[in-house]
Amino acid sequence: MADPPRLLVFFASLISLRFCGADKGSDIRGFTPFQFVVEPVDTLAVRGLPAVLNCSAASDAPVRVEWKKDGTFLNLVADDRKRQLADGSLLISAVVHSKHNKPDEGVYQCVATIDNLGTISSRTARLTVAGLPRFLSQPEGVSVRSGGTEMLSCEVTEELAPFTRWERDGRPVELDGRVIQLPSGALVISNGSQSDAGLYRCSIDGLGPAKTTDEAQLQVSAEKLETLQGPVAVVKVVGESVLLPCVMKGYPVPVIRWTLNDRPIDESRERFAVIGGGSLQIVNLTEEDAGIYVCQADSGNMTSEIQAELTVHVPPRFLTRPSNTYAQESMDIIFECDVTGSPPPTVKWMKDGDTVIPSDYFRMQHNLQVLGLVKSDEGFYQCLAENDAGNVQASAQLIILDLASGPSERNDPTPSAPRDVVASLVSTRFIKLTWRLPAEPHGENITYSVFYSLEGTNRERVENTSGPGEMQVTIQNLVPDTKYTFRVVASNANGPGESSTPLTVATQLEVQVPGPAPNLQVVSVGTSSVTLSWDRPHSIYQSTLVYDATTDVDVTGLSYTMTGLKTFTEYSFRVVAYNKHGPGVSTEDVVVRTLSDVPSAAPQNLTLEVLNSTSIMVRWQPPPTGTLNGELTGYRLRYRKGLRRADAAEISTSQLFQLIEGLEKGKVYTVRVSASTVNGSGPTTEWIAAETFENDLDESQVPGVPSSLHVRPLVNRIVVSWTPPENQDVLVRGYKIGYGIGSPHAHTVTLDYKQRFYSIDNLDPSSHYVITLKAFNNMGEGIPIYNSATTRPQSDPIDPDIDFYELFNNPYTPAPDPTPMLPPVGVQATVLSHDTVKVSWADNSLAKNQKITDSRYYTIRWKTNIPANTKYKTANTTTLFHTVTALKPNTLYEFSVMVTKSRRSSTWSMTAHGTTFESIPSSAPKDVTVISKEGNPRIININWQPPTEANGKITGYIIYYSTDVDAEVHDWVVEPVLGNRLTHQIQGLTLDTTYYYKIQARNSKGMGPMSDAVQFHTPKGKSSTSLRLARITGRQEKRVLVIVVIVSVGVFTIIAVIAGAVLCTRRSNSHQKKKRAACKSSTGSHKYKNSSKDLNPPDLWIHHERLELKPMDKSPEPNPVMTETPIPRTAQDPAAEPSHQRRGESLRHEAEESRRGGRPKMMMPFDSQPPQPVISAHPIHSLDHLHHHHHHYHLPPRGYLHHQISLRAPATPSVFSDRPPSAGESAALLYRDAVRGYIYIMAFAWFCWVLQWTP
């Protein structure tokens, strides 16, 4: 058992270490901000003049900038014309350029390096040097008619065009919307006048001495239509401007119009402008501006067309940038790099300025995958994307963490190596490993990591088991017939343990299956067929043709014609070759579209509306989806007079309506419509008839008063019905209802002229409303009719759903017709899409062929029951079906139909129901709120409500947040939320920072719109001073706690030792007095010379039955003396020798008694001459030991130990060697050790105190 002082020291050391090490932690190197602030751009330089390529990089560490030209670093020391500016830019003091020497022209790139950390490269920039000023042609004299257009040529090279200028009669020509300069340098003068006449010349300025052309004279004369310059194909970049020239002259002055992809250009649009009499200028180009532009000139007696294609390129833009990454050796990582652009950009990767070469461990397409990391992979990686419109770059830093490099502060055991690692299953491309539990797992929940590498390489990859305790793993994606080395490491809560012995296993040789069929060609040969051909791969027996990713066709040859395909539809094809070993590698998918054809269906919902005695409005809808069979080019409408065959007039239009005018009064006309593609017209609709009015209704006066007005009050609404004015010869274009409490002028509703009823909703119960109704036309409003009603009290039942046609079954006459028509039957609702339902029915009042030959029409009504008070919507048609559009997605609708002929109408048919398909949400989540979490300002809770128009079941939400509200969407941080939860927690935010949040809902069809950005500012954290004070206060509290503990332990120790020493001393004194009395009574008294008193010292009897008398050390003097007194005796004492002799005999007697079993009696030897003081050290027994043996040993008082006593350890065990210390000795020694322990504790505490204050 340890001594108490040592226990105290150990306990205090633990406490001190606990608080001394509280602030220590592992140091992980952070990412270094490193990026370009300015990158070089394409520059046009002038020979002999200076040129600057700007570049600047920013970082916390010192940055070294270098320059490359055409991929090679520039040696600026040896080139006195080039030097690098302080910010890193490259200055060329005088550009050198000649026909055979072009040292400055080329592609430049800025390279920034941080020593011992990494390198990044800027985007590339091309330096172009303008050539010698020269003209490719001279302007010629021309003439222009007043008001006409003319062009003066000034042909120069493309790089010199920006430096060209025009002069008239020696003065600069001022350019405006009438006088413009084309990109080629030519000058266009439109709306010419006499003031434009003069001598013109072209000059090149800004490239040294000005150079001018010969003068050309502009005169005024008559001319025919002539094309001076038309548009040509041009390629531009998004955001740039383009000028498409179209310069025509002639008399009369030609009118110029522009079309884009056969559609007229709206010249009122802000970005489009026709200048210079006909040239089209487009600013701030977008991708949608690309296409075929046609310039059409019409001078009345002549026309001319010139077309050209505008190609708009989009520079590369990052959708996803690579991000800084921490990783460990043997891990696999992916740097993401998703870019977009037109044409599609190419992507390459660089590491520390060097191109990354694809290999087994560096795999790349757009993203870069690094397998089996090693320490040398650390550095800066860059994704460079480039197309014809430009190039961009983005970088990320990779840091390899070495977790085992720091000093370990814990010595907890880790597992030993896994045992019996074997490859239980070996295939061509995978290996399955199994093993046994380590001999010393040192814990539960043991996990395993398998490290593997190609034999002979030092790049390891790691595969972890799927769960604790699993002792097998399958390594996938291996190379056939290749050796791999495997080792397994077990890990417990304390970390990874020892590695198993490496195991080398070779994958099996792969069976030779065919490769991809080379040279796959797919050609569309018809509207429903394509022909495929390919070359033979090795080891082929037959092929399987796979198309549209769903259908397989076995083929034995090298070509195949696929038939039965859909018209004008895209299909994807691929070929897989087979041999005796099975299927081989598939080819890439090849996409082809079948040829277009004429539409296979007629337009839908053709309706005729007679407007007056000489015009009919025709309306229709496009053919059903999937039946156009090509791009729609327009519609052909044919109409004729009468129901029989007659010559029909034809009208072409691209709209969905057409007004037919100039018809005869009181005649029946029939109309049909067909749709057209580039292949021709498709099937036509049935002939639909309508009869023009005998006489036009009068609109020279306002309508009369409506003949009746009826009201039906309910709790929250009033149903109003009416009949038209009695004078049917006056045209009525609509009705106006006014209503209000006590006054009819509070609210006004305008209704169609066909309507005969209306429900005034959202009224107050038990309220008196005044209602007015009046008809109107273009002349004004007629005389109103009044009525009033009081709504029912709130206690009445809820308003029922009113069937207006049952209330007013004949809305066109005051009294119902005694012979109503039969309602339609067999109503069906067929859902076509998320917003379209086709309603069809049969009419039993028609002949069996269901052909309509009279002027009847059908009214379709529909509504949804959510909300309950939804109003019906109606539409009219003259066919037995109608396609209802503009419906809400994922909504149940009910449909019913009625038929009307002349002034007779049927009742409503039975209802049919249909639920529209789901669609993407059309509205954003609403009521977005952000609140900070109490107690942790770095965490926020964001709450929202579902979108109003979910258009289906919501399957999740996406939360976007950023500190820049104007950032691109792909730059926002994304947090997905699964299910229909309406709250989410975002952690790890920065204090005192403004964040913006948007939310987007999604369903099975896709993503909806984003909500408006919601701003939230995170709370401020404590200042650095407050944090420092808090940290110092915390340290002081820890130190105070250390001192309190140490002082408390020390004081307690001292009190305990003193108390023990006092108790032991008192007990020893009382026992010694008893011993003296016993010795005095047993031995009698003795007389000594030179003493005034008789002293009777006691014999030192040791009551121990197993005590054995041993030989004593002889005194160095010749006459040793045995005495019973503690008083020192001198050599002159005459009684010394007799006493010695008596004591010698007594000792021999005692020894004999001891051998006979009697009690031994021991005397203490003294030298006749006092020697120098000698003290022998004895081991200090613990207090417990002393108490345990108290009944065996009588401890003598400390006063009997004088300096004359020599306690020598004999060569053999003796009674003295087993003698325990006295109580006084124990107390003294215990006190001494306690003081020493207290001193050690205070010294150690002072040492910790110094460490805490040492930075």
Automatic annotation (TrEMBL):
Residues 1067-1172 are annotated as: Disordered. Residues 1-22 form the signal peptide. Residues 1068-1078 have a biased composition (Basic residues). It comes from the Eukaryota. It is a single-pass type I membrane protein. Residues 33-128, 133-219, 239-311, 316-399 form the Ig-like domain. Pfam families: fn3 (PF00041), I-set (PF07679), Ig_2 (PF13895), Ig_3 (PF13927), Neogenin_C (PF06583). Residues 1101-1116, 1139-1156 have a biased composition (Basic and acidic residues). This is Neogenin 1.
